[in-house]
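[step 3/7] fold_predict: job queued, chain A
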Amino acid sequence: MNDSTPKWLDKSFLTFCLSGGKKESDVAISSFDVSSVLPPGNNYSSDLLRVKVIYKKNKTTCNQSLVIKFLTGYNVITKLFDKLFDTEPSFYNKYLPEALNITGNLAVPKSFISPIPEVLVLEDLKEEGYVMADRCKMLDFDHCKHFFVASANFHATSVAVHEKHPEIVESIGVDPVYAADLAKSCADLHKAMMMKGLLCMADKMESTEKYQKYAEMVRKYASSIWEKVVELHKRNDKLNVLQQADPWTPNMMFKYDETGKVTSVRLLDFQATRYSSPLCSLVFFLWTSANHEVRENRLEELYHIYCDTLNAKLQELKCSERLSFEQLLEDIKLLSPAILAFSAYFFPSLTRPQVMSVEQRLKMIERNENPYELNYDDEYCK
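[step 4/7] structure written:
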């Protein structure tokens, strides 16, 4: 075990998980090894530990690799999120069984029964050949295509689940950032950071000849854009789906063939989910994780893929809802203020190698300093 291993992570805990929660178990843990899953900068609100277990079952020696996820930095992270901590256990324990009953398969990790409700025990996707892409290099078209297909199937399935169990979907689909009833202290910090990001972007645009003409517009909207973004993330009267609220590169893993071509994706991290327009999650992904070539040249291809996959799955599940390509384009246009906000608020810090903790950022905000200044180095501004 390493120094970060919590006291509750012991043989008794692992026996419970591997025996499916049975009181009378034929599982006997021989040994287990604990290591960290992620490098700094790839996760902000949880610890993820990889646990390799050797155990005996019916006198047969078995090996199992698990990923254990639990909250960390609670006092700091709740300054930004007051609705984050009950969602993911409910997703795996309540929502996912209903979804799998409907569709049979979703691009998410398998979960194990945990003796501690707020601690998640998941299959180790690394053992299945999945790896995490480099958040700083961003994702090419093939990676984006796999994400769009997986998301379309995930979104369509949530429509079918909502028809049968609206209370489950709506209880976990509470927006962690833009909910109308988000604690004022949390909303004020998000608003302040969004404004700081936009003001920093405007300053850098002003000093770059290519973008000077946009600087004043960005600066003008910095103080008022928060309310518009909140409004755009509300549920609508056309199509609402359960979605990842923050689908950026570290919240998914990819599998590749022997030539290096991506063949599959798994969606991770359902601490932050939202029940609203599916386009909210798609634009977040595109403007935090897709590379420049995709955003400049191949968006319409991805939009067609999403619509075709979503509508086919909705038809398969006998849901009446549909999303036309024209409606998608219209909704994307309406989300333009959110795209600008994401580009200033999230993109600089999520794609740079330098890692700054949430606590450091909040302290700089409290001192009326701009943490985004550190992101706009020469390499970033090229």
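[step 5/7] annotate
The chain has two domains: 1-73, 74-110+129-367.
The chain has 16 helices and ten strands.
exit 0
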